[in-house]
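Please decode residue identities from the backbone states below.
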């Protein structure tokens, strides 16, 4: 296991990096060696982009929508058939409980199914222009897509990009996160088995600053589809401006949950414990700020802390585990920095706030689920994405104050509301500066519903028909109907 190389896959060939260099991978929950990936550079990226362009100009580019639909449905079937293998690999790779990863793999299946159906629904328009013309639009694939993904939902987020890009007829170079890269090899293997011609989907492993940056810079890439941190997204957007690459950015969040005075208290507690601690808080949509109406506040906090203390933090492969390890040892100092900022800001830590020690905890990097109260709104823990199992609970006196606090950060990915009042829900739905608003449910991401953020949470939407359009260009076609060009200058020729 430990000497296994997860190779690049370029034009269907399994390859090491041109430099021969590798990066070793470690299971963050056990410290065991997991294998290695190639440390690729601009040379490997160039080879992959060339293969993707050739596929577009070759067999893949000539396929019909119906052929693409069949390939995507087949891919869904094959992911489903290998779901347990993929989930186990991801659980070992980034410490998330196996049971949760299993659900995410199933969502990747649904995503492929959704876009399999969408491939045959790509249509232009025939607008009613002047009758001497026939004008219409054609939708064409945007071209070669560079897909760059993070570590927190590996195969699911790769599918969010690969499935719509293939449905649209694009080819791809996928650069997964160096922290959780292993399952991408299975995905690309499956796509070949499903019928994607060589070069249609290429996989290049490596670091963001080398392989990722080379992909973003490459002039042969037409679009970058990126999911990751807001600061990285900013760098990528600037770089894409150089050659006007299309760019889609799914970035960070600091999403609020709002518990109104008419909410069902127990339901709101249990749901909001889940929406922060799922995946050890390492989700872009983690509801990491909870605002509770002052009438419910004391009871809410007491029940929330009690429920948090019952969470099982442990072995990701054990089915009773609620929270696994942090995805990487490098996340620990980040957690400690935020806890320190909370203390400096006068916050009270009601539980957690530290690394867990003893027994299996000593082999990996585990952080106790942490609840902080009494923080001013300008504290780092309220304003910045922590991306870990740390929640801040605050209070409000009325709906306007709740809205102002919820909207008072630079992010706007999602917001969750707990209320039994439809009129109140409507007021919040319209008032929240957020790409997704959920009411009385922890769920945020379902194939068919656009997923993406306002403000600095990103540009573009995934998982829906809006997504498909971002992998397409619109070509306007205009022809005369008389068979003779008009002569607007009215000139004559001898
Ligand atoms: P990250 O930005 O560090 O890395 C993401 C990917 O970008 C990795 O593959 C990395 O290698 C690559 N990369 C890094 N620097 C690069 C550069 N200069 N050029 C090109 N590529 C580069 O993010 P992460 O730590 O892997 O993921 C966590 C972040 O992702 C969080 O901020 C989270 O909110 C965000 N996220 C957003 C969504 C969403 O849909 N909005 C979903 C999941 C995660």
């Amino acid at each position: 296991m430990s000497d296994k190389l997860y190779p690049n896959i370029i034009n269907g060939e399994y390859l090491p990096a041109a430099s021969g260099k590798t990066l070793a991978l470690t299971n963050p929950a056990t410290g065991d060696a997991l294998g290695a990936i190639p440390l690729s550079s601009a040379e490997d990226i160039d080879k992959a982009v060339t293969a993707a362009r050739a596929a577009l100009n070759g067999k893949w580019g000539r396929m019909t929508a119906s052929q693409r639909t069949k390939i995507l449905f087949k891919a869904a079937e094959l992911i489903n058939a290998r779901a347990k293998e993929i989930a186990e690999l991801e659980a070992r790779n980034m410490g998330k409980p196996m049971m949760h990863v299993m659900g995410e793999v199933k969502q990747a299946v649904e995503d492929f199914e959704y876009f399999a159906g969408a491939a045959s629904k790509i249509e232009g328009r025939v607008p009613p222009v002047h009758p001497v013309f026939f004008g219409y639009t054609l939708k064409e694939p945007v071209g070669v897509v560079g897909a760059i993904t993070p570590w927190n939902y590996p195969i699911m987020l790769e599918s969010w990009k690969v499935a719509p890009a293939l449905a649209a007829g694009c080819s791809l170079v996928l650069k997964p996160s160096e922290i959780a890269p292993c399952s991408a090899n299975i995905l690309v293997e499956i796509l070949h088995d499903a019928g994607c011609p060589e070069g249609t989907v290429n996989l290049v492993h490596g670091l963001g600053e080398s392989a990722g940056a080379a992909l973003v810079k490459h002039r042969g890439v037409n679009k970058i589809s990126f999911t990751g941190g807001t600061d990285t997204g900013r760098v990528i957007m600037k770089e894409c401006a150089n050659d006007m690459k299309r760019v889609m950015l799914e970035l960070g969040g600091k999403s609020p949950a709002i518990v109104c005075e008419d909410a069902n208290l127990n339901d709101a507690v249990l749901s909001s414990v889940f929406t922060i601690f799922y995946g050890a808080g390492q989700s872009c949509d983690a509801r990491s700020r909870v605002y509770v109406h002052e009438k419910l506040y004391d009871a809410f906090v007491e029940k929330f802390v009690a429920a948090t203390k019952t969470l099982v933090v442990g072995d990701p492969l054990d089915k009773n585990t609620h929270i696994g390890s942090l995805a990487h040892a490098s996340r620990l100092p980040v957690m400690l920095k935020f806890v320190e900022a909370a203390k400096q800001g006068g916050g009270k830590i009601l539980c957690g706030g530290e690394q867990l020690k003893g027994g299996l905890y000593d082999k990996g990097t585990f952080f106790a689920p942490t609840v902080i109260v009494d923080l001013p709104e300008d504290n780092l823990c309220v304003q910045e994405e922590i991306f870990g199992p740390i929640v801040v609970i605050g209070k409000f006196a009325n709906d306007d104050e709740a809205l102002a606090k919820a909207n008072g950060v630079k992010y706007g990915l999602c917001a969750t509301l707990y209320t039994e009042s439809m009129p109140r829900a409507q007021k919040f739905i319209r008032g929240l500066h957020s790409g997704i608003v959920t009411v009385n449910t922890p769920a945020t991401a379902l194939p068919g519903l656009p997923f993406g953020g306002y403000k600095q949470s990103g540009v573009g939407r995934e998982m829906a028909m809006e997504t498909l359009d971002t992998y397409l260009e619109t070509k306007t076609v205009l022809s005369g109907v008389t068979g003779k060009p008009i002569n607007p200058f009215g000139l004559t020729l001898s």
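Observation: Residues 148-152, 157, 175, 177-178, 207-209, 212-213, 216, 227-229, 232, 235-236, 250-253, 284, 385, 387, 413, 453, 457-458 surround nicotinamide-adenine-dinucleotide (CB under 6 Å).
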